[in-house]
Amino acid sequence: MPIDETMITRSIVKRAYRDFLDHIDVDVVIVGCGPSALVVARYLAQAGMSTVIFERKLAPGGGMWGGGMNFPVIVVQEESKDLMEEVGIPLEDAGDGYFTADSVQSTAHMIAAACDAGAMIYNAVTVEDVLIRDGEVAGVVINWAAVDHLGMHVDPIMIRSKYVIDATGHDAEICCIVQRKAGALTTPTGKVEGERSMTAEVGERMTVENTMEVFPRLYVTGMACNAVMGAPRMGPIFGGMLMSGCKAAEMIIARER
Length: 257
Ligand code: 48H
Known about the structure:
Elements: H1 5-21, E1 25-31, H2 35-46, E2 51-54, E3 73-77, H3 81-85, E4 92-95, E5 98-102, H4 103-117, E6 120-122, E7 125-133, E8 136-144, H5 145-150, E9 157-166, H6 173-181, H7 200-209, E10 212-215, E11 218-220, H8 223-229, H9 239-256
Parallel strand pairs: 1-2, 1-9, 2-6, 9-11
Antiparallel strand pairs: 3-5, 4-5, 7-8, 8-9, 10-11
Helix pairs in contact: 2-4, 2-9, 7-8, 7-9
Bound molecules: ligand 48H.
């Protein structure tokens, strides 16, 4: 078959515009695409909610690819084993209720599962602001990450959604924006409390406990939960991230019923 270069261009532009137009007004926007986002996106999409993730980096997966100090291995605990196995991630029993998985294989399986469920992932897009309507978060403001990186003065565009989920990890970027521009969060001080030093056991438990709505229609999941509520980090054990994603999805699905 002879190859026509303009057909390649035409095919990309046609499909990209069609898909983007389908994600301008959605049920859920998830900001950041680490492990917690991938779980919440899969469950929400499976429940029939239109779900889009905007990730600043070129690849989704966040901090999961790198395992522990770039040894490509992550640890999960017994309670989160099912969340790995249901997307086909092979686990090795490390004893005493701990399991290990290849970090690259785990991340790849989780990305594929979220996409297969119907979630749309946009890489290389930064969320730089939110929409607020009647005291509630009502969407996000996005720009190409490259524009942001180069400091180019280019105005962003807007996406409307019923819910926004802050899955931006350690920096809890969306909660920081909301507290600065829109008002108090449901935290002790009304502000982002800041992450505390490593205590794995407490960090893991608190990540799940702190998965909540922190401002009307703004939910927080993953590492961002502990940054927002002032709880410890936990290192390369990922069960809390996965269970947090699962809890966030359950909360939103229950609210929609
Ligand atoms: C678009 C953005 C923006 C923005 C940030 O950190 P992540 O992997 O997310 P989690 O919370 O699901 O997982 C945390 C885990 O990876 C981790 O770091 C652990 C367990 N640490 C323990 C420890 O002790 O250190 O991913 C967040 C993603 C990243 O890919 C960012 O690029 C992206 O969010 N992001 N994307 N717009 N404004 N801000």
